[in-house]
Predict the 3D structure of the following.
Amino acid sequence: MTLAIFDLDNTLLAGDSDHAWGEFLVEEGIVDAEHYRQANDRFYQEYLNGGLDIYRYLSFALEPLSRHEPEQLQQWREKFLDVKVRPMMLAKAKDLLDDHRRQGHTLLIITATNRFVTEPIATLLEIDHLIATEAEMVNGRYTGAVAGVPSFQEGKVTRLREWLEHHQETLNGAWFYSDSHNDLPLLKQVSHPVAVDPDPTLADYARDRGWTILSLRD
């Protein structure tokens, strides 16, 4: 079955859910506002520049999950979806997903953002398959550590290969949509790489190779 694979942040969404979660924590007074906002913004800029140390970032981003009960986290997440995520959702993204569904393709999101943040977003988008960075849990609580390989840069290729083997799928004829040059390792693996509202580095790379470039923004 043909795969239609999608990055999430700034691709299917008009914004970055990981960064927005950090903003939400600040606005709700859950974390120290000044310190957390500065660090959150710094890590996001490092990501945009292509120089993010993913493990250092995850140590920062997952730590708040370890300090609260799962039930409380889920309540905050529901509010986060309403105030931060739903406004990011794009009508053209829905149309694109529906087009692939009509073609009988299997839809899959692959994102560096952790599963706690992204799993309900995949549900909102009606996408059953999700590869996300996994936050470690022990005895029903988050530890603040990452479990396994983060799905970031080359890690997306690693995690996708594991998923393909588990689901007995292949990349034959596969599509992958992304906005970021951080996803070039995976974009180079598929038959149909598509740059969606791409950053300047990806836009140049896509133009040089004749890849499709499209916008899902209104």
Q: What stands out?
A: The CA atoms of residues 92 and 216 lie 5 Å apart. The mean pLDDT is 96. Strands lie at 3-6, 106-114, 129-138, 141-147, 175-178, 192-196, 212-214. The chain has two domains: 3-14+89-214, 17-87.
